[in-house]
Design goal:
CATH class of the largest domain: Alpha Beta
Shape: globular
Radius of gyration: 20 Å
Distance between the termini: 53 Å
Number of domains: 2
CATH superfamily of the largest domain: Vaccinia Virus protein VP39
CATH topology of the largest domain: Rossmann fold
Number of strands: 10
Strand content: 15-25%
Helix content: 40-55%
Structural class: alpha/beta
């Protein structure tokens, strides 16, 4: 039987903080215990302490990312938190279409900073294609990043169970998805190439170096900041602001707030900020 004591939990929390900036509190102990126990049952290790010794001394990058996958939660869906896209349609794309807002050098850059399996960046691209009249004449790209190799593999394939788009408008389904079946015969959909070609997918540790320079017009960093302590959140958002053009938008999860970080941001809607 695999045991998991307070010392093991503390070691995991320390590894997560050091490697990825994750802030794992005692409130998550039961969740972490259940996930780690299930993970180790499928591994070569008989004791949690042996596994943690391996992680601290001999683990490869892939071994570390496997642990990250266990500790992180990759929940996403197409058009998740629809109010953010309604805001962009109303306050960003409509003014662009009317000429009341202009883009520098006819260039539009959007960063999905925690893209998970890809639903968010593909939604961003599809939404722009629908609501930005001049997207074809614009140098438009979406950068999608995440740390997990597992979710990035799915994002790059852009193939999902058919029921993941059940709630989408029929127009989106017909224009932007191709139906198919997987090896088990289950119905699937793949994001159309016209959308995929607008999205660049890369692996990135948010607390590590960022090998790009921006500037971005919009940054989505939704439902990830709560993984970090306040100091790390402040540093991360500060770095994002350096990547954001003046007047650019930073969008976080609806349950997240930046109001207590004392940064040069103006709230224009709950969880939507302007630099």
């Amino acid at each position: 039987m695999i045991t998991f004591d307070k010392t093991d939990f503390s070691r995991i929390a320390e590894i997560a903080q050091k490697r990825w900036g994750l802030h794992i509190t005692d409130a998550k102990r039961d969740l972490v215990t259940a996930r780690m126990t299930k993970f180790l049952r499928k591994s070569q290790f008989q004791a949690m302490s042996d596994y943690l010794d391996f992680i601290e001394k001999d683990a490869s990058k892939d071994d570390l990312l496997a642990l990250f996958d266990v500790l992180s939660t990759n929940m996403t869906s197409f058009f998740r938190e629809r109010q953010h896209f309604d805001y962009l349609e109303r306050e960003f794309y409509t003014p662009l279409n009317r000429g009341n807002l202009t883009l520098s050098n006819r260039r539009l850059r959007i960063w999905s900073a925690a893209c998970s399996t890809g639903a968010e960046p593909y939604t961003i691209a599809m939404h722009a294609m629908e609501h930005f009249d001049n997207w074809k004449a614009t140098d438009f790209k979406v950068l999608a990043t995440d740390l997990s190799n597992t979710v990035l593999q799915t994002a790059k394939k852009a193939v999902y169970p058919a029921d993941e788009i059940a709630g989408l408008d029929s127009e989106y389904k017909s224009k932007y998805f191709i139906t198919g079946k997987n090896e088990r015969g289950d119905k699937t959909v793949q994001v159309d190439a016209s959308v995929r070609n607008l999205v660049t997918i890369r692996r990135l540790n948010l607390i590590g170096p960022w090998p790009f320079s921006g500037p971005f017009d919009i940054i989505f960093c939704r439902n990830v900041l709560f993984y970090f302590d306040k100091e790390t959140r402040y540093t991360l958002v500060q770095r994002m602001l350096e990547m954001l053009r003046p007047g650019g938008l930073l969008i976080v999860g609806s349950s997240e707030s930046l109001n207590n970080l004392d940064l040069p941001l103006r709230t224009v809607q709950p969880s939507v900020y302007v630099k």
